[in-house]
Design brief:
heterodimer, A: alpha+beta, Rossmann fold, OB fold (Dihydrolipoamide Acetyltransferase, E2P), 6-stranded mixed sheet, 5-stranded antiparallel sheet, 18 strands, B: mainly alpha, MetI-like fold, two-stranded antiparallel sheet, about 75% helix, globular
Chain lengths: ~325, ~290
């Protein structure tokens, strides 16, 4: 079991309210990702759950028990840190076993569990090495091993992949997701990378300035963003926002269209503009089109189109995929 | 071609300083070796007979030699233990956030800047004096008989003074090391259920192994040659109780006017220092490897 519930959790450092009040419920076995721009309070929220920071107000319930006054080790959670925080003078075995040793588990059982965890993570042949003799990916796996060996109620990941190179990051992303599914343990994962969030999460919490903007499945966030912030944050390239008469015609202050939901042609009806930059990725082409009176719109088209810088393009949004937002930036249900 | 010329030029340019340093070191050494095989007595000027290793024989068989060797080792060992243990504790305290932390740090470091002669005098006359000293005042106000430190526990008094001088050094080095300890490591240990003591023994102390080694090696170099504190306070006495090797050599040369014997003693001291260094490097040097 491992459900985590936040009830109006607040945190301030001095006079600054980092988290003005967050409530959410993470179900047992769920993989939840906290995502948001840097400084949005996602790491702080994670550290509050871990117990490394004390809450200013509110309650944190793990399996229905309020743990606000429980020390971190007693909460039954384990954490993977951004820097991995391996103990440099201990071998891999010592690192993984440390938590069990502190729990005064019998030696034989520690050995059995460490070997088991090492087997799962392909670390068996490295058990006697020191962390400095390992590569980044291996260190990452040791940090994960240290987390799983304690059989926690939930894993907490604090941007664990940000120190790895791009290729390894994709691998570890898959590995963590697979491991979490296998173990069926609840996981809370903090990242600023929306690709990580979209690919790994069962549900995503989008945070902005300490507030939860939306909590839902990746596709929900993509298809039905609750407000302008989520709409702009999820999806790459960014959603295009258009204000003015085009929006008013649809009964909204702002309308948003994703680059992949715009069709480009050389002539016809729609927004007429000039291609300022064309980025060719092979599979896709990103066109940045200057439309007079609206600004730069980004368009994503499959394959090559033959449009070059300086050409005139006509953009037609898919009417079914237009998101409408009111004056407060909230989405208008269609 | 260009690199070879640069190398050549470099060697020529550093040659004078290397030569100077070499002469600076080698001339006194050779002179000491030369004096150590002479009968060179300041009371009989002009008589410089070659006597072979007799000076060494007399120095090594002198009962004062073994006594002072023991004193030297006790002094070095005790001061090392006191400064490393207390230094770690003080550094741990100073790593905590307290009001006026910078001022506290300055105060703790201050003794290191006091000259050995001055601090020895301060300890002797203001603190440890059996009649007018601060400790005597405390003892009498509590109704005890004051301790005559330099008569009753002379070597311990010297150890106290020297340890007081070197504590700031150890504290400073260990404090900077503590501050470089990764915060996330401590948090990871906290998540792993380690309490204050286990965190200290499993995380902090291993992290301090290297700076502690540095403290031990550097302090040993200086503690082997403690002189001013002894000269100012006890003059090596009572008897030989506070005479260390450095002071013994001094008294050989300038109290007994036996330059030959002192030179032999000096060379013995060099050998002893090297033995201590080798033992130390064997014991703790592996901490310096990466």
């Amino acid at each position: 079991m491992g459900s985590i519930q936040l009830q109006d959790v607040r945190k301030s450092f001095g006079n600054i309210d980092v988290i003005p009040g967050a409530s959410l419920k993470i179900e047992d076995g769920e993989f939840v990702v906290f995502v948001g721009p840097s400084g949005c309070g996602k790491s702080t929220l994670l550290r509050l759950i871990a117990g490394l920071e004390d809450v200013t107000g509110g309650h944190i319930l793990i399996d229905g028990v309020d743990v606000v006054d429980t020390p971190p080790a007693k909460r039954g959670l384990s954490m993977v840190f951004q820097s991995y925080a391996l103990y440099p003078h201990m071998s891999v075995r010592g690192n993984i076993a440390f938590g069990l040793k502190m729990a005064r588990m019998p030696k034989a059982e520690i050995d059995r569990k460490v070997n088991e965890a090492a087997g799962v993570l392909n670390l068996t042949s490295y058990l006697e090495r020191k962390p400095r003799e390992l590569s980044g990916g291996q260190r990452q796996r040791v940090a994960i091993g240290r987390a799983i060996v304690r059989e926690p109620k939930a894993f907490l990941f604090d941007e664990p992949l940000s120190n790895l190179d791009a290729a390894l990051r994709v691998n570890m992303r898959l590995e963590i997701a697979r491991l979490q599914k296998e173990l069926g343990t609840t996981a809370v994962y903090v990242t600023h990378d929306q690709v990580e969030a979209m690919t790994m999460a069962d549900r995503i919490v989008v945070l902005h300035a300490g507030r939860i903007e939306q909590f839902g499945s990746p596709l929900e966030l993509y298809e039905r963003p609750a407000n302008l912030f989520v709409a702009g944050f999820i999806g790459s390239p960014r959603m295009n926002f258009v204000e003015g008469p085009d929006a008013e015609r649809l009964g909204a202050r702002t309308i948003g269209v994703r680059p992949e939901h715009i069709t480009v042609s050389r002539s016809g009806d729609g927004w007429k503009g000039m291609v300022s930059v064309a980025e060719h990725l092979g599979s896709d082409t990103f066109l940045y089109v200057e439309v007079p009176g609206i600004g730069t719109l980004t368009v994503r088209t499959p394959g090559e189109l033959g449009l070059r810088e300086g050409d005139t393009a006509v953009l037609t949004p898919d009417p079914a995929r237009i998101h409408r937002f009111d004056a407060n930036g909230q989405a208008i249900a269609s | 071609m260009a690199t070879r010329q640069t190398h050549m030029l470099g060697r020529i340019l550093i040659a004078p300083s290397v030569l100077l340093l070499f002469i600076w070191m080698i001339v006194p050494l050779v002179m000491t070796i030369y004096f150590s095989v002479l009968h060179y007595d300041l009371l009989n000027p002009g008589v410089h007979d070659f006597i072979g290793f007799e000076n060494y024989y007399y120095f090594l068989t002198d009962p004062a030699f073994l006594a002072s060797l023991k004193n030297t080792l006790v002094l070095v060992g005790s001061v090392l233990i006191i400064t490393v243990v207390l230094g770690t504790l003080v550094a741990l305290l100073m790593d905590q956030p307290v009001i006026g932390r910078n001022f506290v740090r300055l105060m703790v470091i201050a003794p290191f800047f006091v000259m050995p002669t001055v601090s020895a005098l301060v300890w002797k006359n203001l603190l440890m004096h059996p009649v007018s000293g601060f400790f005597a005042w405390i003892a009498t106000s509590l109704g005890f008989r004051p301790i005559d430190w330099f008569a009753q526990a002379p070597l311990f008094s010297i150890i106290l003074i020297v340890a007081w001088q070197w504590l700031p050094f150890a504290t400073l080095i260990l404090l900077t090391a503590l501050q470089s300890l990764d915060e996330e490591q401590k948090e990871a240990a906290e998540m792993d259920g380690a309490h204050a003591f286990s965190t200290f023994f499993y995380i902090t102390l291993p992290h301090l192994a290297r700076p502690i080694t540095v403290v031990i090696l550097i302090e040993t170099i200086f503690l082997l040659s403690v002189f001013a504190e002894i000269f100012v306070t006890t003059g090596g006495g009572p008897g030989l109780q506070t005479t260390n090797i450095a002071f013994l050599i001094y008294s050989q040369a300038l109290i007994q006017y036996d330059v030959g014997g002192a030179s032999a003693g000096g060379l013995v001291a060099v050998v002893i220092a090297n033995i201590v260094a080798i033992i130390l490097v064997r014991l703790v040097g592996k901490n310096l490897e990466t």
